[in-house]
Amino acid sequence: MAVAASIAVEERSVQTRMASPSRFGDKAFEWLTLAMALVVVVLIILIGCQLWNGSSLAIRKFGFHFLTTSTWTQSRSNLGHCRFIYGTLVSSLIALLIAVPLSIATAAYLTELAPLWIRQPLVSLIEMLAAIPSVILGLWGIFVMIPWLRDYPFPC
After folding, report:
1. Whole-angstrom distance, CA of residue 82 vs CA of residue 90
2. CA-to-CA separations, 138 to 25, 141, 146, 151, in angstroms, rounded
3. Cα R_g (the chain), whole angstroms
4. CB 66: neighbour CB atoms within 10 A?
5. Contact 66/81 with Cβ under 8 angstroms?
6. Could you list the pLDDT tens digit for every one of the 156 residues in the chain?
7. Residue 72 gets which letter from DSSP?
8. How far apart are the first and last CA of the chain?
9. 72 phi/psi in degrees, rounded to 5
């Protein structure tokens, strides 16, 4: 009993000698992350302002109707961008419809189902594909896939 009492007294004396933990690092990190988040918001606003200033001459000359028209007559300065915007949105949507389920299924298979002997080679292959810039893949599509698709699957 005396030993337990002396241990309790010793613990209390150690606790009184120790300073209470400082939360300075936590607060500093919290303020730093808040500042960086605000910097991101400010940068987005500045990019928007720069885009608006850079396009103000074209907007004054053509108005906003170039976003909704599709006629393109350069000699009359009738430059409709609707087809280009629509094509970009549709191709991006198709790419997302293909890529998102495929990537989620691949990740689920590799983490949950794949045996170890096939997991490592597939992970390495995916990492190599991720390391190739999309510009290179686009150029491969232009110079390899387009001629092949033009000649072989549907020769017209």
Report:
1. 12
2. 46, 5, 11, 19
3. 31
4. 20
5. yes
6. 555 556 665 666 656 665 666 788 889 999 999 999 999 999 999 999 999 999 888 788 777 777 777 766 666 666 677 777 888 888 899 999 999 999 999 999 999 999 989 999 999 998 888 888 888 888 988 898 888 877 776 655
7. E
8. 98
9. -130, 100
